[in-house]
Fold each of these.
Amino acid sequence: MVNAHAPVFPDGFLWGASTAAHQVEGNNVGSDFWQAENHGTGDLADRSGDACDSYHRWPEDLDIVRDLGLNAYRFSIEWARVVPAPGHPSRAMLDHYRRMIEGCAERGLTPVVTLHHFTSPAWLRAEGGWTSEAAISHFTAYVRAVLPILDGVPWVCTINEPNMVAMMVTRRANGMGHADPSFVTPDPGMTAALSRAHAEARELLASVPGLRSGWTVANQNVQDHGAGPDRTAEMSYLIDDQYLDVAKGDDFVGVQAYSRLRAGRQGVIAPGPADRRTMIGWEYYPLGLEDAVRHTAARLGGSTPLLVTENGIATGDDGERIEYTREALTGLARAMADGVDVRGYLHWSLLDNYEWGSWEPTFGLVAVDRTTFRRTVKPSARWLGQLTQSPAAALGQGGAA
Ligand code: BGC
């Protein structure tokens, strides 16, 4: 029974923004993605280069988050920096990330820390990658190295979007581009490796008092648009639900939602000219967040708390970002009023950052000058910061108590 008088967004709800190391830090030279950008097949339009120089400018980024009135920041630790050579973790890099964690605390921000956000050390790829014999022990050695700096971190995401990582393997194997809308089955070997890495990491992380760990799933929101219930359920299982099932019993699960996937009679119905689309080509579908949290809670049986670790829109029109986010949060409030246990909302992204091969799609609440690295806070950032002061009022009926 829902308590009609309880505020939908409870005290302590996390309101923040997210980033990932490779997309903002710059010069992540030891990572596999850097290798692909600079020594790969040449199919990536842009290189990350200096990115947003957040490796040096993270204090400024944290100041912005605090000054907006947000209370949380999600960022990732870069495995390739912490372990530049297998067996030889870098003390200086661990100190760097520890300073970031302390920097959050000094500003009253809750850190949400991701251990693996798409990139791995180039040396791991050279050794055969994630499905090689030693990959899991390499990953657990990395997790062991970071354990001492995680003191005081309440939320740790082990692996970001394992489903997307495993789908990427299939795409690569079939020479399919990043934006190809066809349905792809995630690589089973990669799925098994990441699931094992996640479980072993969680076991190690359990030794840190007060730390909750989970992984984040890119919720695709597979919807039946002619495929029929059986095929829709099968598609949903392959790309979402098998990863949600792994999260059963975890301390939380991260929900990441941007749009939806329409399952048609002939396969995926790609958004066409008649559909409203975002800068990255995805269908404009802000209700995806509400669908995703409801779906995730239903799949997990309601026992695992949810944290929205990513939601946002690539757009050059900041007014559209506000429109999208308002609709997404109104839907989130509706789901929470119905009893879905959500502990926070972290917008993707704090900064206009490197979108995995391209600088074009802008997801940021804050613009970054590509030459001077000067940050310019967008109206959407101020709007979100203000909303969080009194969300129920800002969202009207949908967010009201
Ligand atoms: C990823 C981010 C990415 C965002 C937008 C998520 O899949 O975690 O790294 O930038 O979506 O594509």
Amino acid sequence: MMPMSSGRFFTSRLVVSALLMLCFASPLGAQDKSQPWWRHAVFYEIYPRSFADSNNDGLGDLRGITSKLDYLHTLGVDAIWISPCYPSPQFDFGYDVADYENIDPMYGKLADFDVLAREAHKRGIRVIMDFVVNHTSHQHPWFLESKSSRNSPRRDWYIWRDGKGPGQPPNNWESSFGGSAWTLDPTTGQYYYHYFEVQQPDLNWRNPAVEEAMFDVTRFWHKHGVDGFRLDAVDLLYEDPDLKDNPVLPGKNEFGDPKMTNKYNDNLPQVHDELQRLRKVTDANGQVLIGETWTDNIDELKAYYGPHQDEIQLPMDFLFTTVDKRSAPGFRKQIGLAESSGGWPVFVISNHDIVRSYTRYGDGQNNDQIAKLMAGMYLTLRGTPILYYGEELGMENHDPVRKEDVKDPLGQQGWPEQKGRDGERTPMQWTSGANAGFTQGTPWLPVDPAYSTHNVAFESKDTDSILNFYRLLLAMRHRSPALLDGDYIPVDQDDPNILAYLRRSGKETILVALNFSSSSQPFDIGQATHGVSRAKSSVLLTTSSTDVTVKGDKHTILLSPYAVFIARITP
Ligand code: GLC
């Protein structure tokens, strides 16, 4: 595409084409090299069951992932987070680990993992393992030993208690999959605690032997080239030792159980002490920590960075997912809160547990345009983005319609209120061919019918596709000191439709304006840039058919519905 003369842009009425990328080659020098790698990286979550199937058994595998590394590299991905691929009976699709130091045969062998890590590193892609720290599988040898007798040397590796009385669990804690969080083991006559499924007993982190065994897991994977861990359900590591009942709230939850706050089994202060100890171990091996940190408010989230930035480097901000629909004020507020925390943000927009953002934010008619809008925001904010596989194609949720088709235990137990997470875990869409090119066998979940137009091969050929928009955005982000390291400066805090902000580093200022409404909206660039000489500004990327009108002091662009507008402002 032709670079556009910046002067012309601001002195005449000018129609900008539907998708325009300009001036990417940054004349501004390199990014800030003193920053750790993960601040400049774009992460990509791979759900291995669903990404690429190399042996046509209908399930994705490690060789499949390796075969797609070039695709990820070209897309602009710097690190992959692989959801659990350890040996597991798969009651919660790998989040029930039976051996932390191996690979499930359905995904391949440890040697396949070594090849994957080596090939990823060759391409400058780092590898992050999902570390399921809170619980194991009920088939893990540790648990089998623990449950074998009250006197087992591993008894205290899990949380065992007597019931309150006949048929009564030790307290009122509930499993997040429904029902009591306690299950009676008939052999020893005691209950064990499981925040999640019956098949996922919680480890007892108060036992130093458990802590050491888990620290050893990080050392094991360091030897296999692993650059960091996503800590699964890390807020749940500790429980109140007196097992006090949780406060009950009015009403019922989606499983028909009483609502309650998890006051005594979630976010306990000891979690933070533990993270500081873990961080020392992972720091020694140069591994980064990402946290699955569900929190109720920004202060709780802030605590996960640690009092001296000595806990999790990248705690995920799930509060971001609470923003309702396409709301400029909603996102402005949430971004502002994260910025006020003083930490390095990790906004969450999609993952394997939440409805895909394409479906959450789409209006049914302009979904592709809205997907670009969300990407335009997500990839220009300060912080480390984590893309969920297929997000770059505009993959949508494809939920089961009948209970008997549901694979996710959460959906099986919570149907129909809770449909489970199958919808966001459908196979990656590679081609317009059979099964979207994911497998030549029968895919474990049905492919979303929209694959015929939303797939890698098809979208690669269409310059206006969501995929090519992501490629442009990612290329721009990687070359822009302001987008990588710059401050976030909100513009016009009151606009109900347009979310606008500057990203400013010592070297560069970028203006981002995002029209969250379904109608065209005027946007005054002059006001946004506080009088910076407009003659030297240049558009980097826009999806808008944009007229620029100069009237006196006002230099107004008309942002088309759901438009993304990104420009570099040169003082
Ligand atoms: C985390 C995972 C989720 C899993 C749960 C239990 O929340 O993201 O998929 O079901 O932990 O391990």
Amino acid sequence: MTEQSATPRISADLTGRVALVTGAARGLGRAIAVCLARAGAKVACVDIKLDVLAETVGIIRSAGGTAEAWECDVTDSARVNQVVDEVVGKWECIHILVNNAGVTRDNVLVRMKDEQWDAVLNTNLKGTFLFTRAASRFMMKARFGRIINIASVSGLTGNPGQANYSASKAGIVGLTRTAAKELASRNVTVNAIAPGFIATEMTAALGDDILQEVKKRIPLGRLGDPQDVADAVLFLASEAASFITGIVLTVDGGLTA
Ligand code: NDP
């Protein structure tokens, strides 16, 4: 199954919903944006590079869906607020927020540079905070919201060479649980998904030899497909998940079982 697969594996009706997905230009973000649009949501596709983002928007529109592109660095607080205001100005609300944009800057702890630490914490954790803060104001007013944060199994178990990345993803778990408690009274749910190894450009960068070793450690014997994560997002965004908040759903083929 690919991120552009025509046959949905689960169905949910998101007609009338507005979703904002960060990091939507490629990888998991693209699969998530396409999946939510196929379920009927209007999708605000957000990423740092507008040219690649246009491909995601094109895929959604050519399938009959509704999407618009917003260029935004998720670490830029003023721009995040502006994008959220623009999306609400265009489509009146944001019902579903998927904080997916993320980067890695791997290095062993003793050699990790300040810039590597800052880049990862700022993009992964601060970016998630900024969009959550900006969008939740509107969700609280609307008495409805679904916030889904893409964490990682690295944030649950730790991973050598990823002190910055695992700290950022563990931070997302803490942010998710606190936001879930703060926003529950307004019918806004906040959950995290912790993917294991999913086949995207981020994992392709590890190289074939490492990926073969990784597969041996995954009980289900394969890397995940972006659609595996997109389907989990669709479930958490759907009515079926209306009593679920503050959880971390692992999508990892049993890696952390
Ligand atoms: P990719 O690197 O393929 O895609 C990430 C996207 O986010 C890119 O389009 C990237 O743009 C964009 N992005 C990066 N920095 C910013 C920023 N400051 N502002 C806006 N957009 C930005 O990653 P994946 O699709 O593999 O991963 C998506 C998420 O899932 C990440 O949070 C990642 O940590 C998480 N994850 C992924 C796993 C995997 O196995 N793939 C496993 C566990 C978690 P650009 O290309 O220009 O950098």
Amino acid sequence: MTLRDDGALVLFSGGQDSTVCLAWALERFAVVETVGFDYGQRHRVELGQRAVVRGALAQLKETWGERLADDHVVALDALGAMSDTAMTRDIAIALDEKGLPNTFVPGRNLVFLAFAAALAFRRGLRHIVAGMCETDFSGYPDCRDDTMKAMQVALNLGMDQRFVIDTPLMWIDKAGVWAMSEAIGGAPLQKIVVEETHTCYLGVRGEPHVWGHGCGECPACRLRAEGFFKWRGSKPVDDA
Ligand code: ZN
């Protein structure tokens, strides 16, 4: 892996996907900063895991510890206030008539990327690394590759920059995310992903499953668990 001398800003929620993206960036960039967004999400427990995961990754490899730099948390209360969804209010998760889960906060990733680019501009970071994925994207249109490319063009025009939005998970499924973390950091990274990252939409930590913490029933937990068992080459999800 050739180390790039430019810097990256990783959209880091404390979840599985963004943790693998952070490890991916730490392998590539000389300076890696992280940004998290607090918009009143119901699974706010993931924000509390951010520092834990960052600390664990910094310990995992000496080079990672040297490259991992500042963390930023941006409060986006307005996003939560404007969004009448299951993610921010205490209502059941369901699918709408277009098959979109009501966990979708409209435009959420577009807002995240705009704030991330403004921060990257200030920090002199060229790469913006994000965990959007078109394969298991749950119907979220702001996770699509075309959306990311359009956003990159808009940000570069609007800020007169040459940002690159990197989405290393775009074309792989959840089993592929497990495989990627194993390829990057082996068993020690898998242990961090399983034990410390948070995915559950309901914000449940609870007793650990073999695939990590969570309620085991919400769409995010099921995707994570199914990906884990597919990756491990065995089935059933019924030990959840
Ligand atoms: Zn869950």
